[in-house]
Amino acid sequence: MCSVIAVDAKHDVLVVGAGCAGMRAAIAAFDAGADVAMLSKLHPTRSHSGAAEGGINAALGNASEDDPESHAFDTVKGSDYLGDQDAIEVLCNEAPGDVYELENWGAVFSRTEDGRIAQRPFGAAGAPRTAYAADITGHVLVQVLYEQVVKREIRTYEEFFAWKLVVEDDRCQGVLAWDLLNGGLHAIGAKTVILATGGAGRLYVGTTNAYACTGDGMALALRVGVPLKDMEMMQFHPTTLSPTGVLITEGCRGEGAHLLNADGERFLKRYAPNAMELASRDVISRAEQTEIDEGRGVDGNVLLDLRHLGAERILERLHGTRELSMVFAGVDPIHDPIPVRPGSHYHMGGVDTDMWGQTELTGLYAAGEVACISVHGANRLGGNALMETITFGRRAGAHAADWALSHTTVTVPEGVVSDAERELKVLLDRVEGERPWQIRDTLAQTMHENFGVFRREDQMLRQGEIVEALRERYEQVVVEDKGNVFNSDLTQALELGFLLELAACMVDSGLARKESRGAHARPHDYPDRDDENYLRHTLVTWDGDRPALDWRPVTMTKWQPQERTY
Ligand SMILES: Cc1cc2nc3c(=O)[nH]c(=O)nc-3n(C[C@H](O)[C@H](O)[C@H](O)COP(=O)(O)OP(=O)(O)OC[C@H]3O[C@@H](n4cnc5c(N)ncnc54)[C@H](O)[C@@H]3O)c2cc1C
Fold first, then answer.
1. pLDDT of residue 251
2. Were 72 and a residue from 92, 101, 289, 443 both cysteine, which residue would form a disulfide, CB within 3.0 to 4.6 Å?
3. Residue 234 and residue 452: Cα distance in Å, rounded?
4. Which of 131, 120, 128, 63 minimizes the C-alpha distance to 95?
5. Are 353 and 371 in contact (CB under 8 A)?
């Protein structure tokens, strides 16, 4: 069974995070013969992957003709040509096999009349390519993967919070983690560590992301000198429920829902006349925000209309969406349109890795939303994130296991725990200062205002100053709870430290990219894409007390940049 058996242990592979990416990585490492463990601040089935609704993309060709090359082209175009095409080809070629493997493990995908896996249309996809389990796809995948983890008796350090990476001899050799249940810091050594800690949507108010999505793995990597890539690329999902930010799946538009402004107009005909509601997310979010900003919104929202789909179809395929709308907005979509607006949803940026999940630091890997390989470039297509967690989780797990099995030693230096305990004591001993939540709220509100769907130079400069000031205030943050058992006051303070550094990286990367591409829209000063100067990734490292910026060319294989219209 999965249980916390021992701490201060050593493993071949230690996976930090137990969502779809982490569990798929752990399964692959186990199957390659490694001694593998997972460590997670949440129970695996509570990981945010479980919230994924709409589906997972693979060119199975069950709904109409399709092939991996079309999937790859749609992904390249969707990325606004910032995605690395070699990695995109790997994703699209390997996706069908990975989806069939999930099916063989018991994933209950929705079916066609003749019993094959059903596929629905999703934004910016040339064919209905998104396999789904009604609108609870993530929940189904998490349960299936967890079953495989349990079957293999993979050790899981449940409710352990990874706070630092152990680096010795220029290799990552483990993790320092806080035991949430009992308190106390522990060093867990490993020949390889895979970060699978998910995204950082909590940098914003009005996000679709859970409270735990605080970008921890990105900050852990940054703190040991590993670059983060394309950090300015935060995706705003066009249909987040007002006022909470809960996601209303793209599957609604896949099933034929319309977006309306205050005049009842399907306004997308003026922004994406061919694809309409199935244009890419960045295009639709900008269209919505423009309608709202120009006074054609409804109380700061636009309306998602499902009524013409009929009660039967809504109840069969979108029952979760109906329930969310009724519970969180008091709206039954069978009878009334749902108020929606753009909200922060997915970080295309993350830890810079190659196609096997390897980072610049020997022994350290990353997979899933924490990583930037990059298959999503400047804009992710709906359904490609779950696929990335599975395909690249598997690849990272296999590679990390191979590396670990051909190297013998793990060294966790003496004193690494006591040094960290002293650092923690300074924080816990402080009694005067500011509570973390005020800083966290200000950060999330101002990121929303100044680094949102549209970005302006002056707003980004102001946000840089705000983040700097918040980082100074953070130096005096006070943790009131001094206890050991489930001290969420402490972990939230540590998470806030991560978020502040990531925000600084995002703003600096955004200022450096003087063009509009995908999620990075600067209509006032740099309205156009500039392939001559910016067809390249931003890379950011931490230099003393500030982000330091660098660039990396985009890898092109078959597709030259074209004008991107839908
Ligand atoms: C509401 C919603 C719906 C979505 N729907 C879709 C969809 O239909 N299709 C699609 O392709 N994509 C979808 N996405 C995106 C996709 O679900 C995510 O990108 C993906 O599931 C992330 O998986 P992950 O394994 O990388 O991270 P997560 O599932 O977020 O898992 C992160 C893990 O890391 C652990 N962790 C984090 N920090 C620490 C730490 N410091 N110490 C220890 N453990 C830590 C957590 O406990 C957790 O186990 C959706 C996203 C949202 C928010």
1. 86
2. 92
3. 8
4. 131
5. yes
385: CA distance to ligand 1 center in Å? 9
CA-nearest of 393, 345, 372, 333 to 235 is: 345
Residues with CB under 6 A from ligand 1: 16-22, 39-42, 47-49, 51-56, 137-138, 161-162, 196-199, 208-209, 212-213, 216, 247, 345-346, 368-370, 382-386, 389
Q: What is the distance between the alpha carbons of residues 294 and 503, in angstroms, rounded to a whole number?
A: 29
- Inform me whether the pLDDT recorded for 6 exceeds 70: no
CA distance 89 to 68: 8
Total residues belonging to the chain = 566
Q: SS3 of 168, please?
A: strand
Structure tokens at 180: 């949430």
Q: Is 24 exposed, middle or buried (0-12, 13-18, 19+ CB in 10 A)?
A: buried
Task: Ligand 1 pocket test: pick from 14, 23, 27, 40 the residue with the most ligand atoms within 8 Å of its Cβ.
Answer: 40
Cβ(99)–Cβ(49) below 8 Å:
no
* Residues classed as catalytic: 281
- Nearest residue to 383 via CA among 253, 206, 231: 253
Mean pLDDT, the chain, as a whole number? 95
